[in-house]
Amino acid sequence: MNKPLRRIAIFCGLLVLTLLIRDNWLQYVKADSLKDDENNRRVAIERYATPRGDIIVDGKAITGHATTDGDFKYKRTYKDGPMWAPVTGYVSQAYGATQLEAIDDGILTGNDDRLFFRNTLDMITGKKKEGGNVVTTLNAAAQKAAYDGLKAQGGKGAVAAIEPSTGKILALASFPSYDPSSIAGSGDSDAKAWKGLLKENNKNDPTLNRALREVYPPGSTFKVLTAAAALENGLYDSADEKTDSPLPWTMPETSTVLKNEGDLPCKNATLREALRVSCNTVFGKIGADLGNDKMLDMAKKFGFTEEQFVPVRSAASVFSDDMEPSQVALSSIGQFNTAATPLQMAMVTSAIANNGTLMKPYMVDELQAPNLDTIEKTDPEEMSKPLSADNAQILQSMMETVVKEGTGTRAQINGVTVGGKTGTAQHGVDNSENPYAWFISYAKQSDGSSPVAVAVVIEDENANRGDISGGGLAAPIAKNVMQAVLDSKK
Amino acid sequence: MSSTSPTHHTSTIGAIGAPSRRNTELALLVFAVVIPVFAYANVGLAINDSVPPGLLSYGLGLGLIAGVGHLVVRKFAPYADPLMLPLATLLNGIGLVVIWRLDQSKRLQASRLFVEAAPRQLMYSALGVALFVAVLIFLKDHRVLQRYTYISMAGALVLLILPLVPGLGQNVFGARIWIKIPGLGTIQPGEFAKIVLAVFFAGYLMVKRDALALASRRFMGLYLPRGRDLGPILVVWVMSILILVFETDLGTSLLFFGMFVIMLYVATERTSWIVFGLLMSAAGAVGVASFETHVQQRVQAWLDPANEFKLSRQGVVGHTEQSMQALWAFGSGGTLGTGLGQGNSDLIGFAANSDFILATFGEELGLAGVMAILLLYALIVERGVRTALAARDPFGKLLAIGLSGAFALQVFVVAGGVMGLIPLTGMTMPFLAYGGSSVIANWALIGILLRISDTARRPAPAPAANPDAEMTQVVRP
């Protein structure tokens, strides 16, 4: 009987061998794909097992963490959540992450490959894994001025502010906003808050980052771009040269007369005068004269038609490429299809204030390891040169006239040179809806350099139509933002 | 005595005395107690940052179980195999630690089905060792069991039918393999039936093996048995199919059938029985699977665990995410595991400490730990097979190989099921898993194997002096 016994022994050995092979297959060959399977709850458990790194503004964290019950140990908290939401985005145990929280998730959770060596060391020394920090370029005072201004105004709106010489984003506010803390957990209250934020349940759409993701017709603020195109293309050589502008002016190939807002002295006005009182006829004609290609070319140099990554993605601003001359004329005064994000208009302003050089906008200055070592530093980068320094200075003097004695007087700051442009963009079928109030501006220091360029837009359905003008609603907010930046420079 | 090979020098030189190896056993038992005690401390430190307060009593309890076992073996089975008791103690002890670890899980505590399992398992282990001791004390010679061949058959059938008796049987999550004894709790009679059936098969085959082996017809190169000899295998086949159908217990059915085929093969030395057995089990399995939705669903879950997880999450009735959760636990453990107490295998939920306990080993002790556990099982089986080889009587050989083979099959079916190698069946890892019936029955199984090995290794009594014979000359090879 021993021969079959030996065979049974071999058979039992094979059974065990099969199990061993299967185990190696599971725990060695397939281990990583099982471990990182999106449905494997351990992925989320590990993600929230350690406190997340912080997002830092002016050396202070604007985020924090709290412990929660259940599977996930830590959840994100935000200080002044609604104010900073357009900067941070949110990270939620239940609803994932967006914007900066999503883009730099690896650093914040500590899972980034660049932290691998440290993590391995920590594992050996028994230290818990920690997240790194994201240091932003934002200016807390400017952000507060922007958000408080929008909030006081009460309607929807957004502010973007940039440091022209570097492209650092100083303020990025959107209103109405939401508190990302309220959806950071995975409990019932988070679910309720989340439901209330969804667009279909909330017509205010508070999670929309209007400063980056919403495009508005820029209205008259676009005229500074048209003026830049006129100067760059040699149509006019100075701000004080009379333009060849009839009044009334009929748009080419049509019988439609382009109107000004009121009885303005626009006939053969100089560029300076035309910008001061915001002549539609003068800039409409410049656009029509230059043609679609040249206007589009200039708009592209300022960053239109492309998404910007700051590193959060912004929507692409629009300037069409297949228009009739009359449509080019309307587009050149910021109507028709032309649409821009607040960030885009701040970029236009900052390029002019920076003597014609557009710096690539960014809001992450530095990524830090948990021990505060720098892992990655963002260097200012030139994005394009839309206009020459001479022409930029001509444009600056024109914009400064607007604030000094034009439509933008409410942005004046004592002892500081300010240049700006108002805009009141009509929209809706037959311009039936309330227009958007725009204001773009920059402040200039005594040495000629500019520390801040800002764009403000307000959409107010409740306000009296007549009250809405960029100079009235948006300029005071821009002024406060500039003031805040100037104060923090002292 | 013409042969001089070492295996045949039974009567003349036995008096020289084989070493009993009891001290080896004692030394190994020290390890078998110390390793689980360290593991227990490890879990406490990982979960509560402190050495668990029950460490001393746990260590003493396990030590007592091992000590009593050892002393009884030393007294009543001095020549028994020295490895089996330490191996069983180690598996039992480490199983207790992991059951205790899962008791600490907040997720499992939140379930309304939660009961603290470790104290009960410790009690069951003590009962198991008591049964082990009883076997060694009262079963002086395993050949006594031969007398109860047909009583065993009747007993096994009764045990198997019990869960189907209305009022007594319990249907738990689709398998009807428990009976409820008021005041005592539930028992899984199948675990005990395994041993009783092995006794019946061994007794029956010892008598019938010549008839089964020699009276056969040759057909297509295979020796086919005669119709009337086919009877018993058909009965067992039908019985296991019935278990499968009425108790929806795929594992036990496979186990019994496999055990019978192994013993039949050993008894008759006919390969044709294996071919025949495999064909019949395949036919039976396919036949049942074609109309049993419970079995079909198990197969579906095995083929596509990810989809099963999805269906379960969508709340489709009758689906469970356990298989996928077990695979994730194994994968997340990787090569070295997370360390005891630091994994999330409790995500498996229900039955994490019984049917799925191997997944916790997989996650917390990693590939290394699971391979070590599997090798411990392999060693038990190897000692069992060695006992069968060494046994001097056919009944002992058959019983030993039957029990070891069944043990190996059970390990394969459970571990293979949890690791997704074969469809999942509701059986428990011997010694590791939470379950009174399982741990008690397996201690009895080890007791019987030790008894057989003691008989096999015991030096035969010196033959009565024969005044006519001269001293046999021993010629060494």
UniProtKB/TrEMBL annotation, chain A:
Pathway: Glycan biosynthesis; Cell wall biogenesis
Its EC number(s): 3.4.16.4
Keyword Nucleotidyltransferase applies: no
Pfam families on file: PBP_dimer_2 (PF21922), Transpeptidase (PF00905)
Keywords: Cell inner membrane, Cell membrane, Cell shape, Cell wall biogenesis/degradation, Hydrolase, Membrane, Peptidoglycan synthesis, Signal-anchor, Transmembrane, Transmembrane helix
Domain Penicillin-binding protein transpeptidase residues, every copy: 157-483
Catalytic reaction(s) noted: Preferential cleavage: (Ac)2-L-Lys-D-Ala-|-D-Ala. Also transpeptidation of peptidyl-alanyl moieties that are N-acyl substituents of D-alanine
Record-level GO BP terms: cell wall organization; peptidoglycan biosynthetic process; regulation of cell shape
InterPro entries, per database record: Beta-lactam/transpept, Beta-lactam/transpept-like, PBPA_dimer, PCN-bd_Tpept
Residue ranges constituting the Penicillin binding protein A dimerisation domain according to the UniProt record: 52-134
Recorded topology in the membrane: Single-pass type II membrane protein
CC annotations in GO: plasma membrane
Enzyme class: hydrolase
Coiled coil: none
Subcellular location: Cell inner membrane
Recorded GO MF terms: penicillin binding; peptidoglycan L,D-transpeptidase activity; serine-type D-Ala-D-Ala carboxypeptidase activity
Family: Belongs to the transpeptidase family.
Name of this protein: Peptidoglycan D,D-transpeptidase PbpA
From TrEMBL, chain B:
One Pfam family this sequence matches: FTSW_RODA_SPOVE
Keyword Transmembrane: yes
Intracellular or extracellular location(s): Membrane
GO MF entries: lipid-linked peptidoglycan transporter activity
Membrane protein topology class: Multi-pass membrane protein
One Gene Ontology CC term in the entry: cell division site
Location (main, coarse): membrane
Transmembrane segments: 26-43, 55-73, 85-102, 122-139, 151-169, 189-207, 228-246, 252-268, 273-291, 356-377, 398-425, 431-450
GO biological process: cell division; regulation of cell shape
Keywords assigned: Cell cycle, Cell division, Cell shape, Membrane, Transmembrane, Transmembrane helix
Name of the protein in its database record: Cell division protein FtsW
